[in-house]
Design a protein that fits this description.
alpha/beta, Aspartate Aminotransferase, domain 2, Aspartate Aminotransferase, domain 1, 2 domains, three-stranded antiparallel sheet, 13 strands, globular
Length: 379
């Protein structure tokens, strides 16, 4: 495509470095839980301003391990319904019960009033999701509510590598946080994830759970119902190369976002960007904008077929409480989340894009909206 929805960016010099390190790894025969994984963990500690980082094979695994370490089995876990399946799925696989909550329009994150309404004596944890790399400005309120109730706050930070609010890093607001290194993310390890925490007990439990529940790497004495959640050394090597580029990638994404911010003024309320809060650093994993009076499916079709522009996937198109896999979890309606999910788009953004690409997207968007509106007027 002329402008794809997303793109993995691995510069040529990084590819050479990765291949050389993987060759060393293959020569050594140490393909898992080795020095590269340890180096990635050490570097990620600095990014998140925490004491511990534990590399695992996916962001989904990271979240499930955290919930198992906290001990949510048989208890309710508050999950914002505007999130990816994995957030709720991790709760179920950890033996917990999902309690969905609504979301607020400023950051697409957990709604504070809804949180207060669903929090109760059965609550074992609360999950906040940093949608699109935006840390909700209500995060301190959410943390205070959780602390007052004696309930751990967990961050699903799958989108939030390098994000900050008031100088505090994503991953450092709760008891523990889960990051994803899936290929679409701001940085990738191919497949992979990371747990970060300041909590000694969570750290020790996570080490056990990720390696088949064994008491230690060199023993076969199993003390927890763990799983093979390890990150391989080749994946860690790719992650290390990408992590070195994190600030550079975020800077480029911010440049693309600035072009969009300026250009969308012409479209007025029809396409209104979701702004990160003051005092924050957003990594622009997604560039989110709300639609008004424009049919999203038709708009996406015109952009793709007539202008070769792919809009990034929504965050999210269908809220979790309406997903078939969670049927029966709740009969409640969540009007804020349903509205947010139904009428937003995510403009393409990646570290490979140029300002010229972003300007072309804006031109294509404006022309596509005109065509969609003209077609609607003739019906």
């Amino acid at each position: 495509m002329k402008v794809p929805p997303a793109a993995v960016h691995v510069p040529e010099e990084d590819r050479a470095w990765i291949l050389a390190r993987i060759d060393e790894c293959l020569q050594s025969g140490r393909l898992t839980l080795g020095s590269n994984g340890a180096a990635l963990e050490e570097a990620f500690v600095g990014v998140c301003q925490v004491r511990y980082a534990i590399a695992v094979n996916s962001g989904t695994s990271a979240l499930e391990i955290i919930l198992r370490a906290i001990g949510v089995e048989g208890r309710e876990v508050v999950v914002p319904t505007n999130t990816f399946y994995a957030t709720g799925g991790a709760v179920l696989h950890a033996g917990g019960h999902i309690r969905f909550a609504d979301c607020e329009p400023q950051s697409f994150a957990l709604d504070v009033d809804s949180l207060r309404a669903v929090l109760g004596p059965k609550t074992g944890a609360v999950i906040v999701v940093h949608i699109g790399g935006i840390i909700t400005p209500r995060i301190h309120d959410i943390r205070a509510i959780c602390d007052a109730a004696g309930v751990p706050l967990v961050e699903d930070a799958a989108h939030a590598h390098g994000c900050l609010l008031d100088g505090k890093a994503a991953g450092s607001f709760g008891r523990a946080a889960a990051f994803s290194f899936y290929p679409t993310k701001v940085i990738t390890s191919g497949e992979g994830g990371m747990i970060v925490t300041d909590d000694d007990a969570v750290y020790q439990e996570a080490l056990i759970y990720r390696d088949q529940g064994k008491e230690g790497f060199t023993t076969n004495f199993h003390v927890r119902p763990g799983y093979n959640w390890r990150m391989s050394e080749p994946h860690a090597i790719i992650g290390l190369a990408q992590l070195r580029r994190l600030d550079e990638f975020i800077e480029r994404r911010a440049e693309i976002a600035a072009v969009y911010d300026a250009g969308l003024v012409r479209l007025g309320p029809r396409v209104a960007p979701v702004r990160p809060p003051a005092g924050s650093r957003c990594n622009y994993y997604k560039y989110i904008a709300r639609l008004s009076g424009i049919d999203r499916a038709t708009l996406k079709k015109v952009l793709r077929e007539e202008f070769d522009v792919g809009l990034s996937g929504e965050v999210y198109e269908i809220p979790c409480h309406l997903q078939p896999v969670f049927a029966g979890v709740t009969s409640d309606a969540f009007p804020k989340a349903e509205d947010l999910c139904a009428r937003h788009i995510c403009l393409p953004v990646s570290a490979k894009m140029t300002a010229a690409d972003a300007r072309y997207v804006l031109e294509a968007l404006e022309a596509s909206i005109s065509r969609v509106e003209a077609a609607a007027a003739t019906r």
